[in-house]
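Q: I'm building a small set of examples for a reading group on sequence design. Run inverse folding on the following structure and report the sequence directly after it, with nothing in between.
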């Protein structure tokens, strides 16, 4: 359907295809070895600790998805070109990378206790960014289904390649799948929260562990948080680009 796209949209469509392929590439030896080590460590952690971390992640995400505090005051952007949306998204990402880096530097300089406190704070920053990003691309987070989409985007950004393939399939078919969703509360009961938090921790563990080392914590904290927001930004922008291009074909949108 590229004929219906502007030149910029055609370029983005090609870029998205390359990005999709990268999401599904089989992990290399180093990545597989790293995953094996992380799995071994996770197996040594008592179930009680896993349950505590799972409850923390679940509580933060559910509070965010059901609450109104994260819904941006600014209305979603309508009748805006994809190029303009991308430009605004880049500005938003730049701002949030600075916010996350500053928070990480402060937490890293504060030692182990502040370093541990950084975990829920950074999670909140990431989710707030995704809420605002949704509005940049014209999707209102007042609709609970858009909040669920944010949950899928978040998981895609911080999951193993095997899990990414499954999540990407859902994201690409969102316009069909979302229509059959049950109420938000019922849907969230179906989420495997332990798997979600474990995939998330496995993705960020190494960088965040370095943040706890005395003397380099501030520098590493800023570097780690900046990089994690960059990864989330790339995933988020590409997921919303996919939807905008699909919407244009499915509805005959004339965004210019």
């Amino acid at each position: 359907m590229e004929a219906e796209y502007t030149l910029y949209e055609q370029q983005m469509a090609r870029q998205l295809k390359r990005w999709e392929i990268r999401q599904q590439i089989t992990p290399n030896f180093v990545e597989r070895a790293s995953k094996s080590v992380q799995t071994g460590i996770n197996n040594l952690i008592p179930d009680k600790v896993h349950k505590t971390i799972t409850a923390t992640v679940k509580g933060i995400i559910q509070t965010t998805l059901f609450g109104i505090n994260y819904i941006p005051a600014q209305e979603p952007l309508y009748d805006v070109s994809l190029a303009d949306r991308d430009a605004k998204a880049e500005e938003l990402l730049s701002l949030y990378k600075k916010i996350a880096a500053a928070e990480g530097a402060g937490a890293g300089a504060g030692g182990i206790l502040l370093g541990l406190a950084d975990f829920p704070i950074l999670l909140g920053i990431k989710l707030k960014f995704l809420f605002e990003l949704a509005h940049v691309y014209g999707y209102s987070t007042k609709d609970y289904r858009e909040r669920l989409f944010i949950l899928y985007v978040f998981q895609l950004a911080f999951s193993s390649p095997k899990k990414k393939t499954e999540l990407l399939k859902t994201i690409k078919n969102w316009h069909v799948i979302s229509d059959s969703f049950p109420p938000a509360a019922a849907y969230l009961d179906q989420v495997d929260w332990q798997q979600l938090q474990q995939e998330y921790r496995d993705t960020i563990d190494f960088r965040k562990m370095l943040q706890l080392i005395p003397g380099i914590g501030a520098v590493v904290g800023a570097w780690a948080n900046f990089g994690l927001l960059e990864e989330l930004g790339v995933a988020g922008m590409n997921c919303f680009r996919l939807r905008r291009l699909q919407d244009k074909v499915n509805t005959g949108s004339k965004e210019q």
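Residues 2-251 form one domain.
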